[in-house]
Amino acid sequence: AHADTLSFELSVNGSRSIVNSGISTYENNGDRHTQRGTAAHNTVCVDGQDSSEVWSAFRVARRARPLNVKTDQRTFAEAAHDGYTRLKDPVIHTRRIDLGETELRITDTLQAKREHRAELHFHLHPAAEAKIQLDSRLTRAEESTLWYPEFNKSLTNTTIAGRWAGKCPVQFTTRIQI
Question: pLDDT (tens digit, 9 = 90+) per residue, 140-164?
Fold first, then answer.
């Protein structure tokens, strides 16, 4: 299992656009731990923590559980998870994804009472040129990262991160042109 609750991947007209980072090994090492972590997936990290606690090569403790799952099977999906309720100030992350004619709109809500740090990740397929418009409250960073399409194989890709720190509750809207 991975700490990937509420992550997604996106293909447009049969071409992969947004991908999770993938796995390069089953060995119990730092690479495997990083690749299973929340930051290696297209979702939100809170306070630098994984949404589920991953350890060893295949172990997961305090697994995030999905809550309030809703979808019309065509144009939207929405769910929350409790993976960050273990924090001193518990956080519930809710994500709604709306598919329109020309864009995918992702709305992330963090429900809590105090200040937190959030980091959203969008890992681009090496051949993709996705147009991602982050919420204006997020500080944008583009990083050169690795995508692992199969064991022992890595390709350079780009990860777009949106970073924020402040008082919750807070909501961010990201738009991806399709």
Answer: 999 999 999 998 899 999 999 999 9
Whether residue 116 contacts residue 110, with contact meaning beta carbons closer than 8 Å, is answered with yes
Distance CA 174, CA 150 (A): 29
pLDDT in tens, 67-76: 999 999 999 9
In angstroms, rounded to a whole number, what is the distance separating the alpha carbons of residues 53 and 154?
25
Rounded CA separation 149/156 (Å): 11
The model's pTM is 0.92
Q: What are 30's two structure tokens?
A: 């730092």
Torsion of CA 146, 127, 121, 35, to 10 degrees: -30
Look at residues 56, 69, 66 and name the one whose alpha carbon lies nearest to residue 28.
56
Contacts for 30 with CB less than 8 Å, ≥ 6 apart: none
Beta bridge partners of 1: none
Beta bridge partners of 55: 59
83-115 burial, b at 16+ Cβ within 10 Å, e below that, comes to: bbeeeeeebbbbbbbeeeeeebebbbbbebeee
Structure tokens, 35 = 């690749």
